[in-house]
Write a structure and sequence with these properties.
By secondary structure, the chain is α+β, with helices and mostly antiparallel strands. It is 43% helix and 13% strand. The protein starts with a strand and ends in a 12-residue tail after the last helix.
């Protein structure tokens, strides 16, 4: 039973009294009840209640303006059927549920959306809406009773999820109900799984605190910024006039994770699909009725904004907030927040709690590290000496790791500096200044590919030209006195190098032991028209969980990899007793060269017992690469058979298995700038880890594009 408070104007009651004669109401109710199969068995109980309710409502004349009584939900809805008819009642109920409660002038909007054949007076409609909303928990009629033709014109309403101001000051002062319409409604496009739809967006404003409540956030942009609502909204904001269903956003993320679908590929697929759907015709008709100009399409840029906005929101809701815990809906602030997330992830690891299935494969005791050189991005070409406080790192590359400015070889800071030094700032112009006279016209250089020459230049000329460029860059580097630790910061070892500077210097200044024959593979940098990163180093658990990834610059130098590994070991072994360090297994395809560093053969400049942690752990070469090592010591010292005897299920190929999946993002990631490259890589690694844990929990096999044999 529900309690209703219905307001009736006395003049309207007087004018409508003949229509609500008890005998007529009783006869009408009997006829309407017979049309609904759900009510046939309840006719004898409901009709008397309808008559009694009608007498209570209008039987006392115009002296009664407000009447309070109790009715069961079904009885109240039958009363509506008796008054306005079955079809009109069902349509009114459907439209009422489609229009949110906080839409300004809601009653007028509901009346305007009703079919012209079923128009209702606005004052009377307000009474009906009150009854319908009170009975919404137990509806008698569903939407199947209403024909589709009468519902095609109803748009999707986008309103804030609040009916009153949620600012604490307004709640305390009693001004929480002071929300008004912020501006006129805006016609937007909503992309759903079944095709595009027309939407109407409303924003509310508090007259007391000036908080503005938009669909996806609230607050004040000019002062304290905008906050996210406690619960995710059903739609992801792409722009002010474009929104996407959250299911569509999740579908793209899943397709990208398992099918390597790009932004442009998803855009074209969705456009082709939606053009064949009946919803597209309805959308086009609604657009021409409500807006001028061409209708929106789900373009590549819209898909990318959907992905980045959705992933930024997911980062915020999972605890990766900025200190002020705000998300400001301005493009520049989004980029700043994205940069904050990337910098934070570069110095942290993806958390993982080993499951039973993980432990059987050696999770928690074994890790595999390897470099993937297919995923890279361009960075600033200006040489910057890498150093820790008062101590330069001799063997670390002298590079600026910042993102280049648009149409420039340098970042924003070094672009101005290059202009002051009279250096050309465009890529080809700067290479020509360095001596690459032919590269501006003759070389077509792609990421991770060798130059493709279009004239008579031979390989000797190319080699001489590259040497000339390198010599010129060394001259510029020698003349440049700028020093920075941005390289260490981008690799997540900045804090460690500042805490233990002597360790970083000893690692970077030493070389491999030249007294032994080297088991060397090609670690050099491939020539490109712009300065690109070398790739990323990944550390992976046997279960497939990616522990972290770090960017490598110029080449796979042992100094960079070794310092990254030492920082990870120092953090990991804090929770492991020293007498158990020998059970920690680290697999690396170039372990012999890494272990031949002079810094690796002597105690590290760390407090005891961490000074001997590198010597105590077990180091092996994985099964796939051990056959390529020609030295006898590699076969005896680093052969994986010595750990397989202890754990036959140990998976040392997990890094290569991960690369079989992630390398297929080459064309997608190499086309992005540094910020988007690293953020996209971070999010797909995060989602891949969640997928791996889900597979382990449900007993599924992790899907890989190819099977990497042992």
């Amino acid at each position: 039973m529900y309690r209703y408070t219905i307001h009736i104007d006395s003049e309207m009651a007087a004018s409508k009294r003949p229509r609500y004669d008890p005998s007529v109401a009783e006869a009408t109710a009997k006829a309407k009840v017979s049309q609904a199969k759900q009510m046939e068995s309840l006719t004898t109980e409901i009709v008397p209640a309808i008559v009694t309710a009608a007498k209570q409502l209008l039987g006392k004349g115009s002296k009664v303006s407000t009447e309070t009584f109790r009715l069961a939900p079904k009885v109240a809805q039958i009363l509506l059927v008796a008054d306005i008819g079955l079809q009109k009642c069902m349509q009114l109920m459907y439209v009422t549920k489609k229009v949110p409660v906080n839409v300004p002038n809601r009653t007028k909007v509901v009346c305007s959306l009703m079919d012209p054949n079923y128009c209702i007076h606005e004052d009377r409609c307000r009474v009906y809406i009150d009854i319908i909303e009170t009975c919404v928990d137990a509806p008698v009629f569903d939407n199947t009773h209403t024909s589709d033709s009468t519902l095609n014109h109803i748009p999707r309403f986008l309103t804030p999820p609040v009916n009153s101001c949620i600012n604490d000051s307004c709640r305390i002062s009693g001004h929480a109900d002071s929300l008004i319409s912020h501006h006129d409604s805006t016609v937007v496009t909503v992309y759903s799984l079944s095709g595009p739809e027309i939407g109407v967006k409303h924003a509310l404003k508090c007259r007391n605190c000036n908080y503005i409540y938009h669909y996806s956030a609230y607050g004040r942009k000019t002062s304290i910024g905008e906050k996210l609502y406690n619960q995710p909204r059903d739609l992801v904001e792409v722009s002010d006039v474009i929104y996407c269903e959250r299911e569509l956003y999740e579908l793209f993320c899943s397709l990208s994770l398992h099918c390597w679908v790009s932004f442009s590929g998803f855009s074209e697929s969705y456009t082709e699909f939606s053009m064949k759907s009946c919803k597209q015709q309805m959308y086009m008709q609604a657009w021409m009725k409500n807006r001028k100009g061409s209708p929106h399409e789900l373009t590549r840029k819209a898909v990318s904004q959907m992905f980045y906005n959705g992933e930024l929101e997911d980062e915020a809701r999972n605890g990766h907030l900025r200190p002020d815990e705000m998300i400001v809906h301005l493009n520049s602030d989004k980029l700043e927040y994205m940069q904050y997330i990337v910098e934070k992830q570069c110095s942290s690891m993806y958390q993982h709690v080993p499951r039973k299935g993980c432990i059987e494969r050696g999770c928690g005791k074994c890790w595999s590290i390897d470099g993937n050189w297919k995923l890279c991005f361009p960075h600033c070409m200006f040489p910057v000496l890498c150093k820790v406080p008062s101590m330069p790192l001799l063997n670390f590359p002298s590079v600026c790791v910042k993102q280049p400015r648009a149409n420039s070889a340098f970042c924003i800071e070094h672009h101005s500096k290059a202009e002051s030094l009279s250096y050309p700032t465009d890529v080809r112009g700067f290479l020509g200044y360095c001596g690459a006279k032919k590269s501006a016209d003759c070389a077509v250089i792609l990421p991770n590919e060798n130059p493709v020459l279009t004239d008579v230049m031979d390989s000797v000329s190319v080699q001489q030209e590259n040497e000339h460029i390198q010599e010129t860059m060394e001259v510029i580097s020698a003349a440049c006195t700028e020093e920075s630790d941005s390289l260490l910061k981008s690799q997540g070892v900045q804090d460690f190098a500042r805490e233990f500077p002597s360790v970083a210097v000893s690692i970077s200044s030493c070389e491999e032991d030249k007294s032994v024959i080297q088991c060397r593979k090609d670690l050099g940098e491939r020539k490109k028209i712009q300065l690109w990163s070398r790739g990323h180093v990944f550390l992976v658990r046997p279960c497939g969980h990616i522990e972290f990834w770090r960017t490598i610059y110029r080449s796979e130098s042992p100094s960079q990899v070794f310092l990254i590994v030492i920082v990870w070991l120092y953090q990991t072994l804090k929770d492991v007793p020293p007498d158990k360090w020998g059970e920690i297994i680290l697999a690396y395809d170039n372990m012999c060269q890494l272990d031949s560093l002079r810094a690796a053969k002597q105690p590290l400049a760390l407090p005891k017992p961490y000074d001997l942690m590198w010597q105590k752990i077990t180091k092996v070469i994985d099964d796939l690469h051990i056959k390529n090592h020609v030295r006898t010591d590699c076969q005896t010292t680093y052969h994986p058979s010595k750990v397989r005897e202890l754990n036959p299920l140990l998976n040392l190929m997990t890094a290569e298995q991960t690369f079989a999946w992630i390398s297929r993002y080459k064309r997608i990631l190499c086309s992005m700038n540094k910020l988007h490259h690293q953020f996209f890589l971070h999010r797909i690694v995060y989602r891949r880890n969640r997928y791996t844990e889900w597979c382990i929990d449900t007993g599924r096999k992790v899907l890989l594009p190819v099977n990497v044999s042992k």
